[in-house]
Amino acid sequence: MEEQVKLFGAFPSPFSYRIIWALKHKNISYEYIEEDLSNKSQHLLTYNPIYKMIPILLHGGKPIVESTIILEYIEETWPQNPLFPKDPYEKAKARFWIKFGEDKNSEFYQIFHKIGEEQVKATENAKKILKTIEEQGLGDKKFFSGDTIGLIDIAFGWLAFWLEVIQEAAGVKVYEPNNFPHLQSWINNFKQVAIIKENIPNRDAMLDYFKHRREIIVAI
After folding, report:
1. Could you read off the pLDDT of 41-93 as tens digits, one per residue?
2. For 118-127, b where at least 16 C-beta lie within 10 A, e where not — what string?
3. CA–CA distance, 171 with 173 (Å, rounded to integer)
4. Distance of CA 202 to the CA centre of its chain
């Protein structure tokens, strides 16, 4: 008997969708539990008592937290349809770029959380990070690790959907396709992967959510 898999997530968290994409890629059946982060459930507080955040993967009653750690757990637990390269060096490079993305996420979100001159500076910084990702990480490859989708693509997947919405809600332009041709090609390829295009949040609902959040930030 297979051990039960549950995913605690929240709309419109890109970190939740990372896990959804990985589970779908591996053909793993799971139960999804939507959390209200303004009124966190006792389950969430019990399973992630340190950070008290989603996503949480519950496998056989055991909780795993932090999205990149969950991704590696999924890869190691269900080796079918591998998302990491087999070669140790290529795997190490994949881990580097996933960590790079995690280290820079907060800098991207400054475009949303800052106003005025600070937002202008954050926008320019985000453009530099995108250029580094494009030139040093992606290059002219179809996907980050080659011809098939991998964990780096899933980790950076938010760039394909969330960045456009966030920058619209924040009233800035970080990403313009003509300035990042390789990234745009990757986005087009990523969006055509079946498990991705079948499992994405509604754009209008996302935009409403982030516009509302932005209004609160500006009003403070």
Report:
1. 999 999 999 999 999 999 999 999 999 999 999 999 999 999 999 999 999 99
2. ebeebbebbb
3. 7
4. 15
Distance between CA atoms of 138 and 175, rounded to whole angstroms?
Answer: 16
The CA-based angle 19-168-137, given to 5 degrees, is 50
Tokens representing 166 are 């966030």
Looking up tokens 């890629």 gives: 25
Q: Which two three-digit tokens encode residue 60? A: 């056989």
Side chain identity at residue 43, one-letter code: H
Q: How far is residue 73's CA from residue 64's CA, in Å, rounded to a whole number?
A: 8
- Write the single-letter amino acid at 209: Y
**pLDDT tens, position by position, 154-168:** 999 999 999 999 999
Alpha helix positions (H), 54-115: 67-77, 88-108, 110-113
